[in-house]
């Protein structure tokens, strides 16, 4: 199974990049994982709806090239415990999902066109986090899920 984490915006600050690299390295034995930033620096509008539409265009262009299950990391999504998320990931493994794309939205969320095509929405918390921090939080939770699936001592009940 291939897992891709996409994020709108700019690359992380150095100390967060180090954490991202560390968790991607830890995930390598369990899945093919990659991380990509969809750069939005060309978007200059001040209107939030226009920004979301322009971001949606960038996302849709990228999705044309890839066949996969699109899951939004969104504050309106379903919250999981770590164990429930591990079961969710394992479900995709068992059912031979070839490619999962977890997408972190921009500052204003997602355009309706993206909500319509997503297979699921997941919330990491009721808190609001900066997008750069969400990347490392999600990668850690993904690693935690695989450690639960493989009975590694990382997660404590």
Question: Can you offer a commentary on this structure?
Answer:
The structure is a single chain. With 157 residues, the protein is α/β, with parallel strands linked by helices. It has one domain (2-149): 3-Layer(aba) Sandwich (Alpha/beta knot), CATH 3.40.1280. Helices cover 44% and strands 24% of the residues. The protein has 5 helices and 5 strands; from the N terminus they run βαβαβαβαβα. It has a 5-stranded parallel β-sheet with strand order 2-1-4-3-5. α1 links the parallel β1 (2-9) and β2 (32-39). It is globular. The model has no long low-confidence stretch (mean pLDDT 92).
CATH level 1 class label: Alpha Beta
Helix/strand structural class: alpha/beta
The H-and-E topology, N to C, reads as: EHEHEHEHEH
Could you say how many structural domains there are in total?
1
Amino-to-carboxy terminus distance: 27 Å
How many runs of DSSP E, i.e. beta strands?
A: 5
Q: Name the CATH architecture.
A: 3-Layer(aba) Sandwich
- Share in helix: 40-55%
Mean pLDDT: 92
- Residue fraction in strands: 15-25%
What Rg is obtained from the alpha carbons, in whole angstroms? 15 Å
> What's the CATH topology name?
Alpha/beta knot
Task: State the CATH superfamily name.
Answer: SPOUT methyltransferase, trefoil knot domain
Largest β sheet strand count, sense and barrel closure: 5 strands, parallel
Show unreliable segments.
Answer: none
Question: What's the multimeric state?
Answer: single chain
């Amino acid at each position: 199974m291939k897992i891709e984490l996409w994020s709108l915006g700019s690359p992380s600050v150095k100390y967060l990049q180090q954490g991202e690299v560390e968790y991607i390295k830890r995930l390598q034995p369990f899945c093919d994982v990659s991380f990509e930033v969809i750069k939005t620096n060309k978007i200059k509008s001040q209107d939030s709806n226009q920004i979301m539409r322009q971001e949606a265009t960038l996302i849709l262009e990228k999705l044309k090239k890839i066949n996969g299950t699109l899951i939004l990391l969104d504050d309106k999504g379903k919250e999981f415990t770590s164990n429930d998320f591990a079961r969710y990931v394992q479900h995709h493994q068992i059912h031979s999902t070839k490619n999962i794309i977890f997408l972190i939205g921009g500052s204003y969320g997602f355009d309706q066109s993206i909500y319509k095509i997503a297979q699921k929405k997941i919330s990491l918390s009721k808190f609001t986090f900066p997008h750069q921090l969400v990347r490392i939080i999600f990668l850690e939770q993904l690693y935690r899920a695989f450690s639960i699936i493989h009975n590694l001592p990382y997660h404590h009940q």
